[in-house]
Amino acid sequence: MSTTSLSASNPTPFPPITCLIGPVTLSAYTTPHSPFVPLFICCSVTESWLQLHTFLIQCDLYSFLIENFCRNGMLDSSIETFIHMCKLGVPVSPYVLSRMLTFLVDSNCVHVILDLYGQVCKALRGQCFCVYEFIVVALLNKGKVETGVDFHSAVIERGFVVDIVACNKILKRLCKENLIGVGEDFFNVLMMGGPEPNVVTFSTMINAYCKDGKLEEAIKLYKVMIEKGVSSDLVVYSILVDGLFKAGKLEEGLRLFSEALDSGIRLDVVIFSSVMDAYVRIGDLVKSVQVYGRMLKEGISPNPVSYTILINGMCQDGKVMEACGIFGQIVKCGFVPSILTYSSLIDGMCNLGNLKDAFYLYESMIKTGYEPDIILYGVLVNGLCKQGLMGDALRLKRLNDAVKLFIQMGVYNIKPDMVTYTVIIKGISEVGRLKDASYLEAAQELFEQLTESGPEPDIVTYNTMICGYCSLRRLDAAVQLFQKLIQGQCKPNAITCTILIDAFCKEGNMDDAMLMFDKMLEKDPEPNLVTYSCLIDGYFKSENMKSAFELHEEMLKNISPNIVSYSILMDGLCKRGLTERASLVFHCAIERGLVPDVIAYGILIRGYCKVGRMAEALILYGHMLISGIMPDAVIQRTITEHILEADQRK
C-alpha cells in the first residue's frame, strides 16, 4: 500500500507542508507499533478501512506537525495547520489544543485566538467553555491581567456563550492574588455583559471586599445580590457575619445571623463559632454559651475551634475550672487541642496565680509534640513576672524560672518578640526596685542585648527601663537613656516625659521638671492630665501653693480634670490645715459631675480630723456610706482614733 493512494482517497488534500515530511514519516504511522493497529485488525480491507486509516493518520500527523511548529516558533505554519485540521473536521485532542493555545498566548497573539474561537468551538462541538477558561487562566499566569479581562469582553461581544462556572474560577484567581481592583472590573463586566453572576460570583467578591477591609462595599454588594433575586447561601452569610464582627459591628452581625437562622439554610459550626467569638471579645460569656447551646440544639457538633473559643472566654472570665472541663471534652471527643487552646488555658491559670498547673499543662503540651510559639512563651513569662511580686523567696525563684524560660526559647529557635523582652525587663526591674538594685543592672544588660541583636526597642520598652531607673532614684541614667531615645527613630510619648517629670518632682527638682514640661508644650508630645497632676503635686510638696493653683487653672483651659487631680489639690490644702479651701475643691469636683472615690473622701476626712473638726468629719463619713463607698482601713482607724481622743479630753 502506498502513501499516494491513501492521500488520493481523501477529497481534501494535505497542506503543502506535508510534502516535506515524505513517505518515510507517513509510513511510520502504520508500523506494528502504531496504537491504531488493533483497530485495523477488526476491519476488513474495504473502502471504510481505508477511510478510517486515513482519518487516524491525519489525526496523529496534525498533532505531530503542530507540536513541532510550536516548538520551533513557526507561528504562521502552526496556525495554518490548525485551521486546516478544523476544516477537515478532525477531532482536536486536549493536548493539541492546549499546546496550540499556549503557543499563541506566549506569542502575544490573543487576537488570533479570537479569530479562531468560532472554529475551535465548532471543532469541539460547542464545548468551548474549557477553551475560554484555559486562555484566560494562561493570560493571568503570564501576568497579563488586563488582556484576560479584555479577552472576556471580546468573546461576549462576538456573541459567544461563556460559562459562569469558568468565570467564577477566574474571579477567584484574581481575588486570591489580591488583584481586587481587576476582580471588581471583571465582576462589573459580568454584570453588564454576562454571563449573569450567581451566588458563587457574589460570594467571591464579598469575601474579597471583607478581606481587604472594605466592609461597606461588601454590604452594598450583598444588597445588590438580593435585589437581583439571587438567594444568599451559607458561604455569604458566614463571610459577612464574620466581617461585621471583626469590624466591631456586633448588632449588624447579629441581625444578619438571625436572618440566616430564619432563612431555613442549615448553618454550620463556622458561623456559630464566629458569633460565639464575637460575644467573647466583648466579655459576654453568658451570651456566648447561649449560642453554643443553640448550636447543639440545631444538631451541629462543636469542633476544636468552638471549644477553644469557649475556653478562652471562660479563662478571661476567671472560670478556669469550667475551662478545664471543656478541655477534657476536647480530649474525650478525640480532638487534638491546638496550641491556641493550650495557650488560652495556660493564660487563665497564670492569671489566677496557678503557675503549678500552668507549667504542668505546658509540659504535657510539649510531650504531645507541640513546639511552643512566641505567644505561649509570652504568656508564661508574663505569668511568672506577675507572680514575682508576691514575696521575696517566691519572687526570686519564679523570676529565675522566667529567665530560664526566656533562655529556653532559643532551644526552639524562637526569637523573643518585643512584648516578651519588655515583660522580662519589667519583671527584673521590679525586683531591683523592691529588693536588690543589682537586678536593675541585669535588666540594663538585657536591654542592651535587645538594642544590639534583637528587635528595635519600642517606646514601651524604653519607658520600662526609664521607670526602673527613676524608681531607684537614678535620674542620671534615666536622663541619659532619654537622650538616647530622642536621638533614635523611636520618639518619646507623654508617658515617657511624665515619668521623668514625676521623678524630678519627687526629688524636689521643680526647675528640671518644668523645663521638661515646657519642651512638651513647645513640641510633641502634649502633656496629659497625669503630667499636670504630677507637677501640681510637686509644687505642693515644694511649698509653692501659688504655682500649684496657677498650673491647675492653666490645665482647665485644655484638659478636663478628674477626681484624682482634685484629690491632689485637696491633699495639698489639708496638709497645710486649709480644710475650708479643701472642702470648696471637693464640692467643685462634685459640681463638675465628678464622683468622689474613697481616696478623695479619705483626704478630706483626715483633714477635718487633723484640725479637730470631728463633726464635719463624721458628716462626710456618713455621706460616703450613703453614696455606697466603703471606707478603707485608714479612714476607719482615723475616725476611731480621733473619737477616742475626743472622749479622753472630756
From TrEMBL:
Entry annotated with the keyword Repeat: yes
PPR repeats: 58-92, 198-232, 233-267, 268-302, 303-337, 338-372, 458-492, 493-527, 528-558, 562-596, 597-631
Entry keywords, A to Z: Repeat
Residues making up the signal peptide according to the UniProt record: none
Xref: SUPFAM superfamilies: HCP-like, TPR-like
Native species: Prunus armeniaca (Apricot)
UniProt name for this protein: Pentacotripeptide-repeat region of PRORP domain-containing protein
Family of this protein: Belongs to the PPR family. P subfamily.
